[in-house]
Amino acid sequence: xxxxxxxxxxxxxxxxxxxxxxxxxxxxxxxxxxxxxxxxxxxxxxxxxxxxxxxxxxxxxxxxxxxxxxxxxxxxxxxxxxxxxxxxxxxxxxxxxxxxxxxxxxxxxxxxxxxxxxxxxxxxxxxxxxxxxxxxxxxxxxxxxxxxxxxxxxxxxxxxxxxxxxxxxxxxxxxxxxxxxxxxxxxxxxxxxxxxx
Length: 197
Prior knowledge:
Elements: E1 12-15, H1 18-24, H2 27-39, H3 44-51, H4 55-67, E2 71-73, E3 84-86, E4 90-93, H5 102-128, H6 135-140, H7 152-166
Parallel strand pairs: 1-4
Antiparallel strand pairs: 2-3
């Protein structure tokens, strides 16, 4: 697995256009964008091997993602199949403002749920593979949950501080990563507990 060439500027993309949201609303398409953001430039065949699909299926969905502006082709150094790359380092889904349509809000919710499902699958797979990991990685992995007593303003400050700590390590934009750097995932969920009124 290879990282994208680091050092490029971070470009998080807020997706609020209904057509763009619908273009992403497929589990394989979300998996492809996520894979390219995590591992950098990849061919359709490399994506297929990593995601567990076929090359032709990945090619079809990569082309659809390309038309929607989420991925783009790069130049091949050896004249073979040209790899694809993500054009953003992260995506957020949802209405741009309070006046957005209910259809946009619903499409964003569908994408959030697809993303959560994918992250849960990756987390479960990581838990299953925890013990066979080399010791440095086994020690570094964390599967923690915290029940907080916190105000909305405090929670916002906390998530912003964590976000600031994480940004220098984003795979697509990190330059000068030390030898031995590998792909890792960090998932931050912060929300008001839905069990209260």
